[in-house]
Structure formats: C-alpha cells, structure tokens
Amino acid sequence: MTPLIDISGLTKSYTLGSQSFRVLKEVSLHVMMGDFLAIMGPSGSGKSTLLNIIGCLDRLNEGRYVLDGMNVSHASDNALSGIRSRMIGFVFQSFNLISHMTVFDNVSMPFLYATAAPEIIREKAAAAIKDVGLAHRIGHKPLELSGGEMQRVAIARALVNDPKIILADEPTGNLDSATGAMIMDIIDRQHRKGVTIILVTHDPAIASRASHTRMLQDGKFI
Predict the structure, then answer these.
(1) What would the pLDDT profile of 174-208 be if each residue is shown by its tens digit?
(2) What residue ranges do the domains of the chain occupy?
C-alpha cells in the first residue's frame, strides 16, 4: 500500500541573525491511512516543527514530502491552504479559540473561505459540536467554558470538514488527567472511524493510546 504521508530526508533550518539552526535533520516518516502515531521526545527536539510541516503550515528546506500521492514539497501557499482545508484538522494545546465568538462560530471557522451553502455549514457545525458532547454549549463563548470544554470545541473545529488526518500537538497538556482521558476518548473514537491521527505528547500514558510511537531527539528519530 502507498503511504498517506511519505516523508524522506526532511531537513528544516531556521536563521536567527547570522546563525542558522537545524531543527530537523534528514527525517523520514511513513504513515499509512488509518494509522494512529504518537511522536514523543524532549522539548526542543523538533516535534512541533515536524507536525507543522506535516500539516502544511510550514515548509521543509530539503527532502521530499508526498501527501496522499501529491508531492507538496514545494507547493504554493494557495495549494497548501487548499490541502489543509480539505484534508487536515488541527488540535493545539492552547485551544486557539477566538474569545469573542460563540462555540458555533469557532467550529464554523474552517468554512470561512468555503463555498458551501449556509445550511450545510450550520448542519455540519452543529453535528460536530454534538459529536463532542457540547450541544448544550453551542451559543456560549470560550471564556464561559472549562478547559476540557474548550479543547472539545477545538476538536469539533478540527472534525467539521471531515478530514483524513487529525494532527494534535499536546492536546491534553493544559488539562487534568481525568479531562485529558476524556479528550483522548474522543480522539480514539475518530481513529476507530478511520481517521489518521498523529499526536505529539510528552506523556507516556497518552502515547500508549496510539498504535505505535516514534521518539524524536535532537531533530532525528531514534
């Protein structure tokens, strides 16, 4: 079978002033459709940078990245934006919700540049909110919610476009263990539906939910 995510020889560097720092060093990664991968490693090992490149939020400097049969290594900004909106849902540790908008409006954000009919958008957003158990909070704003509820809103936003891939960067990092387990139950449910999950975590208990784990250290898998 052809991997959904096929990365070979990925190198990523950043320049600060006159100095260049290599964050990722000839990384290769192959993820099949329906996999659940946890990426672990110490702070500064390059985990979030790798996740951003996988999610087409950042670009590699060297190497090759083929996503669902498309070579996206040097795709244009518009092409990457289209790929993100069609294929990828993001869940972040800090939730990244817009404080003055309701739960419904936050979850509807991925449709901002879509051409879907308003009734389809309403139906999909309401269904995603219901799927994470927050139908009773649909009109509330983020500051009226608990941390666990805010993360469930973030997951609903990630799910609303029916993505093939969910990328989660420390999705339980700001939550207590019981709430974190509830969030992971939602992610597990999406995996059972066939969604490919790539999760960055420091927590071995969270990583144990994945089908397999890779360890990143000093910009390389070990």
Answers:
(1) 888 888 999 999 999 999 999 999 999 989 999 99
(2) 5-221
Q: Are 25 and 220 in contact (CB under 8 A)?
A: yes
The CA-to-CA distance between both ends of the chain, in Å, stands at 25
Q: Which helix (H) or strand (E) holds 90?
A: strand 88-92
The reported pLDDT for the residue numbered 113 is 66
Q: Please report the pLDDT score of residue 17 as a whole number.
A: 80
Closest CA to 34 of 213, 211, 217, 216: 211
Distance CA 18, CA 115 (A): 45
In the numeric block, which tokens belong to residue 62?
A: 């060297």
pLDDT in tens, 62-108: 999 999 999 999 899 989 988 888 899 999 888 889 999 999 999 99
For the full predicted model, state whether its pTM sits above 0.85. yes
Report d(CA 196, CA 89) in Å as an integer: 10
For tokens 């909070």, what's the residue? 137
Give the list of residues 6+ apart from residue 54 with CB closer than 8 angstroms, or none: 5, 7, 29, 65, 165, 167, 198
Residue 39 is encoded by which pair of tokens?
A: 């990426």
Residue type, 120: I
Provide the 3-class DSSP secondary structure of residue 62.
strand
* 5-221 CATH fold: Rossmann fold (3.40.50)
- The Cα 177–Cα 161 span in angstroms is 28
